[in-house]
């Protein structure tokens, strides 16, 4: 099974997270062929040069040959590149598994948090773009733990 792994890769934190989670997936099953864009030095060695069309062509080609996309949704907003990749995968009916681990999703039944929503600028929850998450849900699923994501990937493989 060919998997496209979509996440930002420019901060050390994202880069390390991507490498760690992809390693866990690869160890879980040798049947997984995972494309991790940061491993493609031809377009992502930032000491070298790749223009926007080179990057778009290389990553789009990998999205289109994928059987599944894993999209990381964490961050202040969904990474712009990840959102674009989700759109391409959805348009080609490639299943998408999102991972959303933001701790602000906790306490959804807490009455104080719910009451606070009535006050301006007191939203205790994180917002994700509903169009982008809707595309995922129309052709996949969103998980809130790495373990659940890995189980779902293995079940699909």
From TrEMBL:
GO terms for biological process: deoxyribonucleoside monophosphate catabolic process. InterPro entries: 2'-dNMP_N-hydrolase, Nucleoside_deoxyribTrfase. This is Nucleoside 2-deoxyribosyltransferase. Gene3D superfamilies: 3.40.50.450. It holds the Pfam family Nuc_deoxyrib_tr. It comes from Lacticaseibacillus manihotivorans DSM 13343 = JCM 12514. It comes from the Bacteria. GO terms for molecular function: 5-hydroxymethyl-dUMP N-hydrolase activity.
């Amino acid at each position: 099974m060919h998997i496209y792994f979509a996440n930002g890769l420019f901060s050390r934190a994202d880069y390390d997270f991507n490498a760690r989670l992809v390693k866990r997936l690869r160890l879980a099953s040798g049947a997984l062929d995972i494309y991790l864009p940061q491993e493609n030095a031809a377009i992502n060695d930032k000491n070298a040069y790749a223009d926007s069309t080179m990057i778009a062509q290389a990553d789009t080609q990998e999205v289109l040959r994928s059987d599944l996309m894993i999209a990381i949704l964490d961050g202040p907003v969904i990474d712009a590149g990840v959102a674009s990749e989700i759109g391409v995968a959805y348009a080609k009916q490639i299943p998408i598994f999102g991972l959303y681990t933001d701790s602000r999703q906790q306490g959804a039944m807490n009455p104080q948090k719910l009451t606070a929503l009535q006050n301006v600028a007191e939203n205790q929850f994180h917002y994700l773009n509903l169009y982008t998450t809707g595309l995922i849900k129309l052709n996949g699923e969103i998980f809130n733990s790495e373990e659940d994501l890995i189980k779902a990937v293995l079940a699909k493989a």
